[in-house]
Write a structure and sequence with these properties.
- The structure is a single chain.
- With 116 residues, the protein is α+β, with helices and mostly antiparallel strands.
- The protein has a single domain (2-110), classed as Ribosomal Protein L22, Chain A, CATH 3.90.470.
- Helices cover 35% and strands 33% of the residues.
- It has a three-stranded antiparallel beta sheet.
- Strand 3 (84-89) and strand 4 form a beta hairpin.
């Protein structure tokens, strides 16, 4: 049984988020949340919320048949979102473009251990 959580438009670059996402890929939900809660990164807090949400979705979807102990992170992907473009004034009348990158986070949890 699979369930997912999708968080769109996170104001953080995908490259920074993937560092944290790669650490918890394939782990159990409880182990992943424990690891993320101790990590001093902004991405860890955001990913932890998404993992908890996906686990809650799995419990709700199964009608209470699945417990958190049985779940593991089947897939976690960080994709690029829309880039917010801003201009910064520079010397001699010039301007540089500042690109604020955003991310879309998808977490899929599953209770089957066939592939892992």
């Amino acid at each position: 049984m699979e369930a997912r959580a999708l968080v769109r438009g996170i104001t953080m670059s995908p490259r920074k988020m993937r560092v944290v996402a790669n650490l918890v890929r394939g782990k159990g939900v409880e182990e992943a949340v424990g690891l993320l809660d101790l990590m001093p990164k902004k991405a860890a807090r955001l990913i932890s919320k998404a993992v908890k949400s996906a686990a809650a979705n799995a419990e709700e979807k199964s009608g209470g048949d699945v417990s958190v102990e049985d779940l593991h992170i089947h897939a976690i992907t960080v994709d690029g979102g829309p880039i917010i473009k801003r201009w910064m004034p520079r010397s001699m009348g010039r301007a540089n473009r500042i690109q604020h990158r955003t991310s879309h986070l998808t977490v899929v949890v599953s209770d089957d251990h066939g592939g892992h």
